[in-house]
Amino acid sequence: MVDVGRLGQAAFEVGYVDEDLVRRREPLSACWTLRFERLSPVRTVKAYQGQKSMTRDYWAATTAGHLSCESHLERHHAMLMDFDLRVTGLIGQPFRLFWPGPRGRRGHVPDFFARLDDGGDLVVDVRPDDRIGPDDAEAFAATARACELAGWVFRRVGSIDPVLLANVKWLAGYRHPRNHREPVASELTRAFAEPEALLAGAERVGDRLAVLPVLYHLLWRRVLEVDLTSGPLGPRSVVRQAVTAR
């Protein structure tokens, strides 16, 4: 087996689809500055008979576009990146990485590529710890090595804290900009200038049926903030103005 952790930049190639929808395959060194988040996916995710997890698109508020996901877990991680204020661009199936193996060139398509607000590049693979076989381990190690050489950040992610997941899934239901309505949004921002229980603050602004969707949208955008990890989001959750927002 090739020790991928010792490979140099010349060992790697990247296949991608350029701005003109032309498929290209170039040395890694020629791809360091590519804006993959602005390009098309290198492959299409398709459903097939007998697959173990359902394929379903995720609509990302960050890009106002759809991401193809091969599993519920991928979709959940797409959602978490969409919720992350540091992420300014996002694409699924961004490129195919090639490197030498004992039986010829091997290839791997990472699940996501994200552009960060500091200009950095983030490459993400989604796979639970208990589902990583020898070939997967090699693919992730090769991707990590290529990212190291290119100056990109690589992250392999798996299971998600169930409380955080449940809360962000709830807020994601209100991520679309149509849930931002004035003057309710401005009134809610003022209402939570000091920490306040979620429902009490909402009812000070108006009827809960009209106000809560706007409140959840502001929480999604991080105009307002709440602890999403210590317990389920509820009427008594303490909401406050956030320092940063999208």
Automatic annotation (TrEMBL):
Q: Would you say which domain of life the source belongs to?
A: Bacteria
Q: What is this protein called?
A: TnsA-like heteromeric transposase endonuclease subunit
Q: Which organism is it from?
A: Streptomyces canarius
